[in-house]
Amino acid sequence: MTKYLYRAVKVGLLLSFLIAVGGCNLIAAPLAVLGQGQTRKVPAEYAELPGKHLVIWVWADESLLFDYPAIREDVASHARYFIKEHVKNAKIVDIAVVDKFQRSQYEADSMPIVQIGRKFNADVILFIQVSDFVTRPGSAPNLFQGRINAQSALYDCNGILPVENPQRKVWSGKIEVVYPEHPMGMMETTDLRIRSALLQLFGEKLAKKFYETKEPVEGK
Question: What does pTM read for this prediction?
Fold first, then answer.
């Protein structure tokens, strides 16, 4: 007790001295420094993915596929990379195998999503519906600023429930990424760099839904 009482007295004397010589502004600076580096835990929105056999299925409409023919593979491969990087023992079906099935089966995109998952013997299927993907703002085609929007959902493929039963959806969320914060000129970046950054940020943001993360605690 004596040790902690001694520390408290020292802190009290220090604060009194700071108030006497410079007021509250001198107190704020050291306290702000003490607060730097603090983080808080953010729990996973769906924490049961470790150890599951997962297939990633990406859907995009014809107009988007016309502008970006590889959008499905690109989104799926980035999602797969970041999920495998952070979710322990996640077993994810090869993206190339999924893409081959999606291209070769004319009615694949109209099949019940759980039925698709079962085609790959998956425990769960991650469905990503990309609704928007651009690398230039519509109001300023000579500048670069990318955006990707996607509605995502995770479905349980096991059990005896009908394949289209709503209870099979175990998680859902909208992933939206804009990069950079402000438009950039052609001398500063390229379409390829913007596209690469968008896909990386999207994959990382999506994967964070499935594992515990830490984020900085902002000072008040």
Answer: 0.80
